[in-house]
Amino acid sequence: MKNLPNRIKKILIVLFWLCLWQAVSVLVRNRILLVGPAETVRALILQAGQASFWRAVAFSTGRICLGFLLAFAAGIATGALSYRSPAAGAFLSPPIQFMKSVPVASFVILALVWTGSRNLSVLISFLVAFPMIHMATETGLMHTDAKLLEMARVFRVPAWKTAFYIHRPSLYPYLLGVCRSALGMAFKSGVAAEVIGVPDGSIGEKLYMAKIYLSTAELFAWTFTVIAVSALFEKGFLALLRAASGPAAEKAEK
Amino acid sequence: MRICGLTKSYNGIPVFRDLSLDFSDGGTYCLTAPSGAGKTTLFRIILGLEEPDSGTVSGLAGKRLTAVFQEDRLLEGYTALKNLRFVSGNRFSDDELNGLLLRLLPPDALKKRVSAFSGGMRRRVEILRALIAPSDAILMDEPFSGLDPETKRAAADLIRELAKGRLLIVATHSAEDAGLLGAATVRLDPLPA
Fold first, then answer.
1. Between A155, A161, A169, which is nearest B133 by CB?
2. Is the confidence at residue A254, as pLDDT, over 60?
3. B67, B71, B76: residue with CB nearest A154
4. Structure confidence by residue, pLDDT tens digits, B101-114
5. Mean pLDDT of A213-219
6. Which of A131, A143, B57, B99 could be joined to A100 by an S-S link, Cβ 3.0–4.6 Å?
7. Which residues of A touch B69 (CB under 8 A)?
8. Using a CB-CB distance cutoff of 8 angstroms, which residues of chain A are in contact with residue B169?
9. Is the model's pLDDT at A201 over the cut of 70?
10. What is the ipTM of this complex?
11. Between β-strands B2-10 and B54-58, what pairing exists: parallel, antiparallel or unpaired?
């Protein structure tokens, strides 16, 4: 095992866990309690052949991603505002702390009253991701190299150039870290909200139906779909973030 | 520029007391002083980065200053050209800036990021950055530290050429730097203990 390439090692580890999962499902012999990977894949293939599967994926992914992207833009804007103006930071602090600490379920119920279930996942993924991105932006900007800022001030460099060449590189490592977790959280809470609100044609509704009909294979298949979609969006978004951050990205990832 | 009765202390320890100096527009000065005499503090006050305890710096209203700081302050992830572009505005074309860089750096350095540069190479980029930025006065804090005699001479030649007509104040330990730059020497004596 020691001399195997990393890729092979990873595949072997995954295979081990899949085999264990299959073995346990065979031992349990109860398709309601646990289904194995083979049956999950079968259910997934069956679902993927239906147009409603893709519609549900598009419905939920589109809304959760929209909520996250709105949170990303708003979090950067308010984080930058808090950095520029401590008074604005103090003003924004209570709602940010509130959003951070209120349970997602409470938000879901409130949002159901306010907006109905259709766009529930937009609001919930926004509320989950926004405070995280706001705080990461503020912290990242506060850790900007003060000596470089002094240099820019002395040379009277325009504010946009200072933001692009000095603040942006300092922000990147903080945004990278927070976006990784915020994206995962947005998908988890977005889908959880859909399970509570049950909007028509969403992944949440499909998961809810799987629960009602005790179809564990479908439940697993949808769970796998959410994980895959979330990972794909994360990869794409982080690649864009990396490209937008220029040389800072390479330095931060070394 | 006139410095009048300037006093500055940190935690009750005076750096300089009642310091008065005169610098004429377009002049070149070497401010020589041993370490700890307050050269860097004086520069920071002139640049507006620190406030004196008392005294005034006059004659800088509406004037632009540039500086070589005591330590390197370059944009690490970028090339020397990008570092110059950061401050130069549109006064120079890329070809002109590369031509100036080639007077101080080896040709292969132009493709590298400054994070890969030696201390001396970084210093030369700092010097050039202060020279090409639009300004009325240039302050250089130990600009030749880390430079060998040959590159120091090349840097001094470029400073003389590009700083012409602007007030230039160079803080240095070495009295011979005044000769290299054709500068008048101003001595900043440390306060008696």
1. A155
2. no
3. B67
4. 999 999 999 999 99
5. 88
6. A131
7. 147, 150-151
8. none
9. yes
10. 0.91
11. antiparallel
Pick the residue with more confidence: A245 or A168?
Answer: A168
Residue A152 identity: A
Residue B191 clears pLDDT 80, i.e. is over it:
no
Is A1 within a domain? no
| Nearest partner of B172 among B135, B127, B119, judged by Cα | B127
Closest C-alpha among B161, B179, B181, B157 to residue B169: B181
Quote the domain boundaries for residue A142: 51-252
To test the contact with chain A by mutation, choose from B75, B78, B82 the residue with the greatest count of A C-beta atoms within 10 A, namely B75
**Does a structural domain hold residue A147?**
yes
Closest CA to B162 of B131, B138, B127, B189: B131
Distance CA B81, CA B112 (A): 10
Give exposure, A156-181, as e/b (b: 16+ Cβ within 10 Å).
Answer: ebeeeebbebbbbbbbbbbbbebbee
pLDDT exceeds 80 at position B57: yes
Residue A136 lies in a domain: yes
DSSP assignment of A110-158 equals HHHHHH-STTHHHHHHHHHHHHHHHHHHHHHHHTS-HHHHHHHHHTT--
pLDDT at A236 over 90: yes
pLDDT in the model for residue A226:
94
Residue at A33 is within a domain:
no
Q: Check which CATH number belongs to the domain holding A96 and give it.
A: 1.10.3720.10
Arithmetic mean of pLDDT over chain A:
91
Comparing CB atoms, the residue among A154, A247, A250 nearest residue B66 is A154
For chain A, how many structural domains are there in total?
1
Q: Do B75 and A166 touch (CB under 8 A)?
A: yes
Please tell me which residue, A110 or A182, carries the higher pLDDT value: A182
Residues 6+ apart with CB under 8 A from A59: A199, A201, A202, A203
Give the rounded percent of residues in chain A with a pLDDT score beyond 70: 96
